[in-house]
Amino acid sequence: MNHADVAPNSTEFLATVAARQLAGKRRVFAGVGLPTLAVDLAMRTVNPSVELVYESGICGAHPDGLAEGIADSVLVTGAEAVLSMHALFGYVLQGGNVDVGFLGAAQVDRWGSLNTTLIGDWAKPTVRLPGAGGAAEIVPNAGECIVVLRRHDPGALPAKLDFCTSPSPVRAREEDPRMEPPGHGVSTVITPLAVLRRPDKFGELEVSEVHPGVTVDQVRAATGWDIAIADDVCVTEPPTVEDVRLLRDEIDTVRLYLR
Amino acid sequence: MTATQATKVMDLSTAIATHVEDGMTVALEGFGHLIPFAAAHEIIRQGRRDLTVCRMTPDIMYDQLIGAGCVSKLVASFFASGSAGSLHEVRRRVERADPEPLEIEEYSHYGMLCRYEAGAANLPFFPLRSYAGSDLPKLNPNIRKVEDPFGGPDIYVVPPLKPDVTIVHAQRADRLGNVQMWGITGAQQEAAYAGKRVIATVEEIVDEHVVRSDPNRTLLPAHAVDAVVEVAGGAHPSYTHDHYVRDNDFYREWEPISKDREAVLAWLDAWVHGLPDRAAYLAKLGHERWSALGAGTSTGATGATDLEAATA
After folding, report:
1. Contact A86 B153 (CB under 8 A)
2. N or C: which end of chain B has fewer CB within 10 A?
3. How far is B284 from chain A (nearest CA, A)?
């Protein structure tokens, strides 16, 4: 395989690794930004038949350009369906029809709970983040969730979240065992250093792949808890020259998300 | 129609003056599409104060309303402007109470939708399978857990949201107040039925036969609407499907403005207080920029034109 020379913390690298997680998945609920690149690349490589669902109500998007937002008109034109948001969240997502949710977050804990609300003190946060959006619905109700983080350090992967916006099944079960969500929660976290996976619905994230040039010890030191290492930990397969060409020359020609 | 059916058409200034009062709870909806910017600017221009504003995604429009000093409380579920980043006017108030604090009541997207749904359907609350294990119910005591009377697990519920006024933008309406919209229709139908009064701004007022030739596009029948206002370009810098596309440059240009409170105030002076209405705003935007977004060209309004041709 002809590998491209891109750094593991580049958007090209992260988007390609993310795209490969979508092989064999049917229906993907995608957010804006890096997930937009990843689902587009997946459609052109590992999964031409993936159905793209957006929280704005769109099912089966076939955009002829790069979406600047989840309600962009390029997602509407040529789409298979545009539903009301109530139908999208109620019937499509909560009804159990989404296989993979694709999310970002400011913080992820060892069980895959997400913080997108605030950093610091609740009453007087140092950073006010965008909030729950649809993530609080996607994490419990999608079959599984993939999270992409732009940073890998104890701030982004802390022992304890500053705020839990979108809880893992572990936290839901702690509140009430009968309120166990149908979905697996976060199954995969892609960072600039590694791919973390959580094979057990009630288990912890573990280091599954380390990116080329990164050691397991580096990943451990950059994580806010004593993270487990998978028995079969391996080196991440980097993007191919073709993956990077597709991202740069066909998908994000205007450099909206690529820098 | 009969001659006795009254028109609901009025101008924007009259609609806002008639229906939006200081201290009210106001929802301006439109999820990334059909965002009623012209109506928000008229609220700013008329100097409304102490509003509780509701919206799933308070984007640039609410950054402007808050920057203009119209808002004391925000009820919402996502505080950012898509690809354009943070809402710095919101962040200044929340992080530093600068220049004043802003009260926030926060939900998830489906939580907000369920609040509108409960308001619209006159229900005491609406259940959803979110929030188990989340800190959100600790932050917002209006997210509560109830017992399932049918023996299932406990479930979280949210209370009805019944805005004093709901404002939406749409492609077209007839003068009776039947409002037609298509493309992404967000929470507009729920939010409008939840509202005690409803103002719809539209790209064009059309003859009744246009509406009746395609009644599935009527999301808001006339009985749900109090005022219809023709405001071409009323959703800019967001878009109106089949009329004009999103002004992505504007969204990118807003971020540096938003970072500087003085720049926000200067922008509001130049683009809102200093102009009488949306026609003047579009003129200031300039023909070149506006027509580049597809406005007034054959790509604009193709849906309606094709439809009228097909039904002629």
Report:
1. no
2. C
3. 25
SS3 assignment, position B65: helix
For B184-214, the pLDDT digits (tens) are 999 999 999 999 999 999 999 999 999 999 9
Nearest Cα residue in chain B from A122: B139
B-chain residues within 8 Å CB-CB of A179? 132-133, 153-155
Question: Could you say which of A55, A137, A144, A204 is catalytic?
Answer: A55
Q: How far apart are CA B77 and CA A130, in angstroms?
A: 8
Which member of B90, B110, B239 has the closest CB to residue A89? B110
Radius of gyration, CA atoms only, chain B: 20
Q: What is the mean pLDDT of residues B267-271?
A: 98
CA distances to A68, A196, B243, B283, B287 from B291, in Å: 20, 48, 11, 11, 6
The beta-strand segments (E) located in B77-217 are 103-106, 126-128, 144-146, 155-158, 165-173, 179-180, 197-205
pLDDT tens digits along B32-41: 999 999 999 9
Q: With beta carbons less than 8 A apart as the criterion, state whether B195 and B27 touch.
A: yes
> Residue ranges per domain, chain B?
12-123+160-311, 128-158
| pLDDT range class, residue B233, cuts 50, 70, 90 | very high
Q: Which residue has the tokens 């891109």?
A: A6
Task: Return the CATH number of the domain spanning residue range B12-123+160-311.
Answer: 3.40.1080.10
Are the beta carbons of B110 and B142 closer than 8 angstroms?
Answer: no
Domain holding A100, by residue range, is 11-251
Question: Rounded CA gap, A65 and B306, in Å?
Answer: 24
Cα angle for residues A148, B84, A100 (degrees, 5° grid):
30
- Answer yes or no: is pLDDT of B305 > 70: no
- Strands A107-108 and A114-115 come out as antiparallel
Cα separation, B103 vs B123, in Å, equals: 26
Best-predicted range by mean pLDDT among A124-133, B116-125, B253-262?
A: B116-125
Please indicate, yes or no, if residue A257 is contained in any of the structural domains: no
Element (H, E) at B16: helix B12-19
CB contact under 8 A, A124 and B187: no
| Residue at A115 is within a domain | yes
* CA–CA dist A35, A237 (Å, integer): 19
- CATH code, A227: 3.40.1080.10
Phi, then psi, of A36 in degrees rounded to 5: -60, -45
DSSP state at residue B244: B
The 3-state secondary structure of chain A, one letter per residue = CCECCCCCCCHHHHHHHHHHCCCCCCEEEECCCHHHHHHHHHHHCCCCCCEEECCCCEECCCCCCCCCCCCCHHHHCCCCEECCHHHHHHHHHHCCCCCEEEEECCEECCCCCEECCEEECCCCEEEECCCCCCHHHHHHHCCEEEEECCCCCCCCCCCCCCCCCECCHHHHHHHCHHHCCCCCCEEEEECCCEEEECCCCCCCCEEEEECCCCCHHHHHHCCCCCCEEEEEEEECCCCEHHHHHHHHHHHCCCCCCCC
Span B55-60, average pLDDT? 92
